[in-house]
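User: Hey, quick favor. My workstation is busy. Could you predict this chain's structure for me?
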Amino acid sequence: MHFELLLEAILGQREIIHELECSICGFNETYYRDPVTKQSIGRACKTCNFVQKFEGVKLAEERAS
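Assistant: No problem, here it is.
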């Protein structure tokens, strides 16, 4: 439950894109995207208690336009 609260606080609303092997612990690392914009917003590993929010993804795409 604690990990879900952490995800909610850092990433907000999200949906799972896919899971890969975590480079730190070897268990599943989950990648998330925003359910509205469908942009990748972060990744997390429940075993490591690791959450990373991707910053600047939207800004980089706007610059390319």
